[in-house]
């Protein structure tokens, strides 16, 4: 068996983990909303038409924040279409995804759903066809207590208490030509600056996210981020980045597993760009990052779509064990950047490239990616530790030499839990890792959960929903002196307890 070593030092810390690092995303797209979270005709729906089976699965993820309502959808969406009496709401051609949007769900219903699952909202305003005025009015509608035109309308619509939405994104992927009313960096920077001003005039307690590069593959990257931040540095608290991975043609399994190295570089480069603007502006303010769309998404697949139908399916990827392992690597990278990466949204949550899949009128299941994501969202708390590692190496076509195991660790002082997240990319070897805890008390292993299997293509289906599920390793000895064995091609969550 190959061997490695990890040193955990209590005071050697990368940064505090923001509790919004493992959020998710619901877009009015495909069946995310209609027949996803909302299906009044479903036998297991509540009085508002929300699917209770989906509510329960979402609750398992303990999401801190959910981005809403888009996505590409938002750039043609007028939020006022989704308020008031349902029978008066317009059905519209939804141009981004070529469907019909019935507007049965709008911001009020989504706020109710968020309460039910115990999450907060990251609202996105329309800076495509929308105006700064419309964005500020949405802030007023959601956050102003009452006594004004828009806040009174919210009260009249049955929501006496404000929704109190703290985090707002200034548009979505405005760098992409596919975006409705796409803008150049300077045009976006100007428009977003005016929107930010008006939105903060309406509520100066909100936090704002600038729309950064939607992929490092675009020609405009990283100039987009530089220019946009030159306009918005004083207005915003975060710059967004979006990134999706799939096994491209001729890409080896090994390279696919190492996708986290690409994410690592993307995050570092956006930090560098933001810090350049900080220097340019002689600013003391540090810009944080919001990875508010990320996932595995097989973009090589052509989906047959039925156009101009409400709730017609879009990109309902069926995830394999291999996809779940890749996602685990991305989780480690996110934790390892906790000092600057404060928010993240797994895109998306239900049906559309999602950990939860539903049948119209039927079941809801957990896809393979549900598990590593849940491990991150439930366990990455407190501080991200700066580990010192000595690990066996693997060779990759795309990335050269890399650690066979990618790791991240967190320390939750409240619970005295130290959590190790590890992805073994080695296709041949289990790896025994010696663990050395410095500055801690007596450290014991509490549990070791593994996601692996013989068939990397295995998927969970409605007929067999538990084909790919994590297993608990039998902890023969709760001592750490024997080290931890990380099986080949596996995702691992190891929880240690610091006994003082
Ligand atoms: O998440 C699916 C789509 O991917 C979103 O609508 C868009 O923002 C991104 O390109």
General description of the model:
With 500 residues, the protein is α/β, with parallel strands linked by helices. It folds into 2 domains: 2-10 and 385-499, Immunoglobulin-like (Sandwich), CATH 2.60.40; 18-380, Alpha-Beta Barrel (TIM Barrel), CATH 3.20.20. The protein has helices at 52-60, 107-117, 132-143, 149-156, 185-202, 223-232, 253-257, 259-280, 321-336, 370-379; strands at 2-9, 13-16, 23-25, 65-68, 92-94, 99-101, 120-125, 167-170, 207-210, 238-245, 288-296, 341-346, 356-358, 364-366, 383-385, 388-390, 393-396, 400-403, 405-412, 417-424, 431-438, 442-451, 471-472, 484-486, 490-499. Strands 3-4-7-8-9-10-11-12 form an 8-stranded parallel beta barrel, surrounded by 6 helices. The chain has a 7-stranded antiparallel sheet with strand order 2-15-19-20-25-22-23, covered by helices on one side. Strand 5 (92-94) and strand 6 form a beta hairpin. The protein is globular, with a radius of gyration of 23 Å. 49% of the residues are buried. It binds alpha-L-arabinofuranose.
Biggest sheet, in brief?
8 strands, parallel, barrel
Between the first and last Cα atoms, what is the distance in angstroms? 33 Å
Domain unit count:
2
Bound molecules: alpha-L-arabinofuranose
CATH class of the largest domain: Alpha Beta
Strand order across the biggest sheet?
3-4-7-8-9-10-11-12
Summarize the SSE layout with pairings.
Blueprint: E1 2-9, E2 13-16, E3 23-25, H1 52-60, E4 65-68, E5 92-94, E6 99-101, H2 107-117, E7 120-125, H3 132-143, H4 149-156, E8 167-170, H5 185-202, E9 207-210, H6 223-232, E10 238-245, H7 253-257, H8 259-280, E11 288-296, H9 321-336, E12 341-346, E13 356-358, E14 364-366, H10 370-379, E15 383-385, E16 388-390, E17 393-396, E18 400-403, E19 405-412, E20 417-424, E21 431-438, E22 442-451, E23 471-472, E24 484-486, E25 490-499
Parallel strand pairs: 1-21, 3-4, 3-12, 4-7, 7-8, 8-9, 9-10, 10-11, 11-12
Antiparallel strand pairs: 1-16, 2-15, 5-6, 13-14, 15-19, 17-18, 19-20, 20-25, 21-24, 22-23, 22-25
The structure holds alpha-L-arabinofuranose.
